[in-house]
Amino acid sequence: MWPAGPEGLRRAWTALRAGAAAGKALSGGAAAQAQSRPPCWSCGGAAAEEAGDAHALFCPTCRALQPPDPARDYFRLMDCCRSFTVDIRKLQRRYQQLQNLVHPDHFSQRSQTERDFSEKHSTLVNEAYKTLLIPLSRGLYLLKLSGLVIPEGTDSEMDTQFLVEVMEVNEKLAEAQSEAAIEEVETLVKDKQKKLTEDVSRAFEQDDLQKAKELLTKMRYFSNLEEKVKIKKIPS
């Protein structure tokens, strides 16, 4: 990470500008989008041209931090392809890069407006990072972007065989008293989640959103089991 404070902010800004200069020229569609964004709240200058770039968080004229867009696509914010398969190291680097720019620690000497924007930006970056980091939440977010939502309480839509399987694992965990028995259930649940994750990835690759929705619903059941295992492992 870059050091905190003005020097860290300056170095992060310089690196981002250099990266942007090496990128592709702005397309007509992106230019139109830039023109539709409001001017800088501080100096009234034109908005930064490329909204997807981290340096566009600041006014290109006065470098005042601009307000966050709560509707921004998490994949675009975190510089990731809109896909179930994500480069985790790249995601982590992007997270650190953005937090080096917008974290509230860097704005303690700035205006109240920028301090408020900083808090909101940092919260948005945290939420985007956590959402894309975990396969289940990443998959659910992809479905949401496509207009599909998995409601709570979907037992009636699941096949009986799967529900019986989940019930049996729950019973096995409830009966587990030794550390070895708990670890056996933990391994079973992790293996199941790994297989479901692979199947979800394949469904998204084939653009089969209904299949992805079905598999993510199953992943949610086993995610709940993972949490139960963690609680079971905590000494009473």
Automatic annotation (TrEMBL):
Would the keyword Metal-binding turn up in this protein's UniProt record? Answer: yes
Question: Which biological process, per GO, is one annotated for this protein?
Answer: protein complex oligomerization
Keywords recorded for this protein, A-Z = Chaperone, Cytoplasm, Metal-binding, Mitochondrion
In which pathway does this enzyme or protein participate? Cofactor biosynthesis; iron-sulfur cluster biosynthesis
Q: Where is the Co-chaperone HscB C-terminal oligomerisation domain?
A: 158-230
Q: Supply the InterPro entries for this chain.
A: DnaJ_domain (IPR001623), HscB (IPR004640), HscB_4_cys (IPR040682), HscB_C_sf (IPR036386), HscB_oligo_C (IPR009073), J_dom_sf (IPR036869)
Q: A single GO CC term, please?
A: cytosol
Q: Which GO terms describe its molecular function?
A: ATPase activator activity; identical protein binding; metal ion binding; protein-folding chaperone binding
The protein's location, in the record's own words, is:
Cytoplasm; Mitochondrion
Q: Which Gene3D superfamilies match?
A: DnaJ domain, HscB, C-terminal domain
Pfam families the UniProt entry points to: HscB_4_cys, HSCB_C
**Highest taxon of the source?**
Eukaryota
**Where in the numbering of this chain does the HscB tetracysteine metal binding motif domain appear?**
38-66
Family from the record: Belongs to the HscB family.
**The protein's role, per its UniProt record:** Acts as a co-chaperone in iron-sulfur cluster assembly in mitochondria. Required for incorporation of iron-sulfur clusters into SDHB, the iron-sulfur protein subunit of succinate dehydrogenase that is involved in complex II of the mitochondrial electron transport chain. Recruited to SDHB by interaction with SDHAF1 which first binds SDHB and then recruits the iron-sulfur transfer complex formed by HSC20, HSPA9 and ISCU through direct binding to HSC20. Plays an essential role in hematopoiesis. Acts as a co-chaperone in iron-sulfur cluster assembly in the cytoplasm. Also mediates complex formation between components of the cytosolic iron-sulfur biogenesis pathway and the CIA targeting complex composed of CIAO1, DIPK1B/FAM69B and MMS19 by binding directly to the scaffold protein ISCU and to CIAO1. This facilitates iron-sulfur cluster insertion into a number of cytoplasmic and nuclear proteins including POLD1, ELP3, DPYD and PPAT.
Q: How does it assemble?
A: Interacts with ISCU and HSPA9 to form an iron-sulfur transfer complex. Interacts with SDHAF1 (via the first LYR motif); the interaction recruits the iron-sulfur transfer complex composed of HSC20, HSPA9 and ISCU and mediates the incorporation of iron-sulfur clusters into SDHB which also interacts with HSC20. Interacts with the cytoplasmic form of ISCU and with CIA complex member CIAO1 (via LYR motif). Homodimer. Interacts with ISCU (cytoplasmic form); this interaction stabilizes the (Fe-S) clusters on ISCU. Interacts with the CIA complex member CIAO1 (via LYR motif).
Question: Known NCBIfam families for this protein?
Answer: hscB (TIGR00714)
**Protein name per its UniProtKB record:** Iron-sulfur cluster co-chaperone protein HscB
What is the species listed in this Swiss-Prot or TrEMBL entry? Answer: Ornithorhynchus anatinus (Duckbill platypus)
Its ancestry begins with: Eukaryota, Metazoa, Chordata, Craniata, Vertebrata
